[in-house]
Amino acid sequence: MLPVSTDEQPLGLTDQDVMAYLRGDPEFFRRYPGLLSELNLPHESGTAVSLIERQVAILRERNMNMRRRMNELVKVAKDNDELFGKTRTLTLELLHVRAWHDLNEVLATYLLADFQADFVCCHLLNQPVSMDHLVNHDGELPHESHVVGNRPVCTTLRPVELNELFPIQNHQKTGSAVLAPLAFDASRGCLAIGSRDPDHFTSQMDTLFVTYISEVLSGVVQRLAQ
What pLDDT digit, counting tens, does each position of 80-119 carry? Predict the structure, then answer.
């Protein structure tokens, strides 16, 4: 054991003390690999792996991890930039909607095609509309059993639930969807965007862009309902 003082700090250590300690504990650097990156060691060739080689290996691994993390951040930035562009285009198209038919076409064209969704449907309460992607309801809306509050929810759905949310298709397998509540004067609704892949819309997804789209869509529905 190394000599220690009463506050557990090494006291009066010599080179021989350190050498003796490390010889007696050959696993020391394996337990504390990060320490190797702080040492300044000359490289000596030989059959055994030197500390400098181990140090280089640690630094190389750290560099690879940093590069991998940087690539992930760059990919996220590119994806967000692309999503922002699509959201901007959809918003501009929504602002030009003048009739329910126009809204039905915009939802089908831009949400299905540009956002690579398999299904889309806007559910509305007590509105004079019945189209492929616009469905009127006289009572409870199909999203209300899945959503609490006004924030969008990403969830996995059984076939019977998919049939309720996307009625123009016949669903036989489990899928997933993001459900974004709509709010406007004296009524309410929901924008449902679905996928055949049950892992496409997960609870870990960021719903910022969907929230923005639902807010713009709420304004459009409010205008058409007047």
Answer: 777 788 888 888 999 899 999 999 999 988 888 777 789 9
Q: What is the 3-state secondary structure (H, E, C) of the chain?
A: CCCECCCCCECCCCHHHHHHHHHHCCCHHHHCHHHHHHCCCCCCCCCCCCHHHHHHHHHHHHHHHHHHHHHHHHHHHHHHHHHHHHHHHHHHHHHCCCCHHHHHHHHHHHHHHHCCCCEEEEEEECCCCECCCEEEECCCCCCCCCCCCCCCEEEEECHHHHHHHCCCCCCCCCEEEEEEEEEECCEEEEEEEEECCCCCCCCCCCCHHHHHHHHHHHHHHHHHHC
Fold that domain 96-225 belongs to in CATH: Beta-Lactamase (3.30.450)
Retrieve residue 115's tokens: 């956002």
Return the structure tokens found at 168: 């123009």
Calculate the alpha carbon distances from 173 to 111, 122, 176, 199 in Å: 22, 21, 10, 13
Separation CA 118–CA 111 (nearest Å): 9
pLDDT 10s digits, 6-59: 455 555 788 888 888 888 887 887 788 777 666 665 555 555 556 667 777 777
* pTM (predicted TM-score): 0.64
